[in-house]
Description:
Layout: E1 2-7, E2 10-13, E3 18-26, E4 28-39, E5 46-51, E6 55-57, E7 65-70, E8 75-80, E9 89-100, E10 103-110, E11 114-119
Parallel strand pairs: 2-11
Antiparallel strand pairs: 1-3, 3-8, 4-5, 4-9, 5-6, 7-8, 9-10, 9-11
Amino acid sequence: xxxxxxxxxxxxxxxxxxxxxxxxxxxxxxxxxxxxxxxxxxxxxxxxxxxxxxxxxxxxxxxxxxxxxxxxxxxxxxxxxxxxxxxxxxxxxxxxxxxxxxxxxxxxxxxxxxxxxxxx
Length: 120
């Protein structure tokens, strides 16, 4: 009923920038919050940035990454600057506590992930 499609990942050299996009579509009435997570090989998935009424960031990305939302179009972006090899991971977006037009209930929906690789 809800699909999230990420784009913008790729290969970049250390110090470079990438901008990730995630568009949610389907029977959406409202989305409470949107966020970006990442998972590196052999590591747990971790929160990178969260956007609700305010924004929050992992300490490791503060000052380098910026999350923004286009609420009218159910889209979230992640601007990543000064990238480091440690930022290499699959990045996932999530739409949190989504209310559907088709019925009650709150549910989170995840995208399929986009690979970000930062070379040294």
